[in-house]
Amino acid sequence: MPKFSKHERDIIKKRLFTEGEKLFSVHGVRKVTINDLTTAAGISHGAFYTFFESKEHLFMEINLKKQQEIFDGLECLFYENKNRKPRKLMKLVICFVMDKFFNDPIISSINGESWKYLSRRIPPETIENNNINDAFVVQKLTEVGVKFNYPTSLVVKTVQFVFMLASSLISDEENQPVMDIIIDGIIEKIVEE
């Protein structure tokens, strides 16, 4: 198989991201096949595997890119709300990120069950990159003066748990007050006043 130039690799990878996002958004990660992806991107199966280990790997890379775009939008939110009390700022940030996540078909498709499925099929460094992305939000909160009662790793896992729980409750509007109670309780416990 001929090697791709850097320019060709960039074009193919971008095409895989674009077509993968379309397919995963409509059908979900489990129903999309490698054949669907390669046909949509106009490449061979072998070429696909020079970029990604599996369709789940591509899915998570798309997810990480989308998360990063959301986190980039936090800069403005932090700047505009830097004088808020720590707990209010934490809730604002969680609600902002949650709103963005759950309005995105790729990110919102990840719940506890799908995370177990994905984590068995993706490279460990991709899981680590996901955790780094999640830690970014906690770091930014710390930089603007929010103090936590627990180590960063525990705060990150707690926030991840809230998002996993929220993803299973999102289908019912009556669950919004439940999420508010859970978020408020967790913030009260992990954020210093």
From TrEMBL:
Residues 10-70 form the HTH tetR-type domain. Pfam families: TetR_N (PF00440). This is Transcriptional regulator, TetR family. One of its GO terms (molecular function) is DNA binding. The keyword S-adenosyl-L-methionine does not apply. Residues 33-52 bind DNA. The keyword DNA-binding applies. Keywords: DNA-binding. InterPro entries: DNA-bd_HTH_TetR-type_CS, Homeodomain-like_sf, HTH-type_Tx_Regulator, HTH_TetR. The lineage of its organism: Bacteria, Bacillati, Bacillota, Clostridia, Peptostreptococcales.
